[in-house]
Amino acid sequence: MNHPFLQALENIYPAERILTRDAQLLPYESDALTAFNTKPGAVVIPLDEAEIIATVRLCHEMAVPFVARGSGTSLSGGSLPIADGLVIGLNRLNRIKRLDPQQRIAVVEPGVVNLHISEAAQPYGLYYAPDPSSQSICTIGGNIAFNSGGAHCLKYGMTSNHVLGMKVVLADGAVTQFGSESLEGVGIGPDVIGLFIGSEGLFGIALEITVRLMPQPERYRTVLAAYDDLGRAGDAVSMVVASGLLPGAMEIMDRLAIKAAEAAVNAGYPDAEALLIVELEGEAPQVEAEFEQLNAIIEESGAFEARVAQSEDERMRIWKGRKSAFSAVGRLSPDYIVQDGVVPRSRLGEALLEINALKGKYGLDVANVFHAGDGNLHPLILYDGREPGALHKAEQLAGEILALCVSLGGSITGEHGIGMEKRDYMPAMFSEEELDLMQALRRAIDPKEIANRGKMFPGSEAPALTLQGMHPLERQGVISRE
User: Fold this and answer.
1) I need a surface site. Which of 216, 300, 317, 343 has the fewest CB within 10 A?
2) CATH of 219-324, one of 3.30.830.10, 3.40.50.2000, 3.30.230.10, 3.30.70.2190
3) Whole-prediction pTM value?
């Protein structure tokens, strides 16, 4: 990193909050997609929004690329740093500035951990609905960048459905306000909040976020159904949807995922090829009526065992197993890739059969964990990175799964984003004209393309990368070394 820029940073930060030594930079070299890693030029740790604004303006003035980073839980390389660029760490901006139980809103800084909002709202009978599996560590700033969802997004929607307003600093240093603290302004004029959410940091940094809070449900009914066939579990999802029920969540785990979760947290799951978790929530009379209907569907679907959580502890143990599944798979394999494709619910069974066939083709195990209600697949591809060519083979399988999702009328991502990992699959979903429009919007806001440079768009200048000897964009049918 150039010396004049570092000198300029010293006018904003004390020395202890400018990190430049190798040992200090090491934790920032990758995010949760650890196959990618890059050493940044420096990391700064702001304590307030004024320091962030000054930093972004300096980056714009001196054309230094920057990446905003919270907890680094991105699974797509979305918070991968840029070689010789700047990482702006947001974890110290972790205050819930205001919680208004009457208006049912919370005003938070970008480094606030997702779960901490619900914990703060709990005494008022409220909570924050989006619940990614990493909600105990992921931050709201990252949730906004990738429009995070979670198990309960089936009924309540994604992050974009729960943000009312934002104060942001754009990539050129301009500070602006989107939305307000009221639902009254929603739907009036262009949806600039919707444009910013999910933009993966390409437009700037959210400094202050106003989120809406939901009343805690009066009653839960959580059903765990066990199947001797993964396809039957998928068909059960279609039956529930076709019945007109709208559960709070519907999740599926296959045998490998069940095994991993049991080893990690002892969730008490039955021995099965697949588990379906269905959770009903809302007012007590409605939930009880829906529960009777759900029981009949589960019985008809061919489940060989069905359990109903009899207490809050049992309910939380069921969900602890599901939410621990990603990390728990590390017990089964030294390395794995998490994919994030989406298929129409009506084609869920077809997708699972094809993924099973692909496992045989590549000779790799795949643990399936997914938000079944909205068709968001999370196949975890297991491999041993110490074996020559193993990562390449796992990437090829991941690419075929993404191609399958698109061919079935789905998407290459549901909530993990494009980042570095999936940017060369964008033309599979979008026309050249659509991609050109997206990039024109980005350049209108960030003419120097310094905000999270190299992410999302195919062919854009990428960070310098190390990927265990393999070019990160080399995937079957995408690019080759020839």
Assistant:
1) 300
2) 3.30.70.2190
3) 0.89
318, containing H or E segment: helix 312-323
Q: Which fold has domain 333-417?
A: Alpha-Beta Plaits (3.30.70)
Helix or strand or coil: residue 125? coil
What residues have CB less than 8 Å from 347, skipping those under 6 apart?
Answer: 375, 408, 409, 410
Evaluate the CA torsion angle 464, 466, 469, 475 in order and state its sign: negative
Percent of the chain with pLDDT over 70: 94
Helix residue ranges per DSSP H, 133-279: 140-146, 153-156, 192-196, 230-242, 255-265
The token pair that represents 475 in the structure block? 């995937």
Rounded Cα distance between 128 and 104, Å, is 10
In 3D, which of 18, 38, 41 has the Cα closest to residue 29? Answer: 38
Distance CA 471, CA 426 (A): 18
CB atoms within 10 A of CB 16: 7
pLDDT interval class at 87 (50, 70, 90):
very high
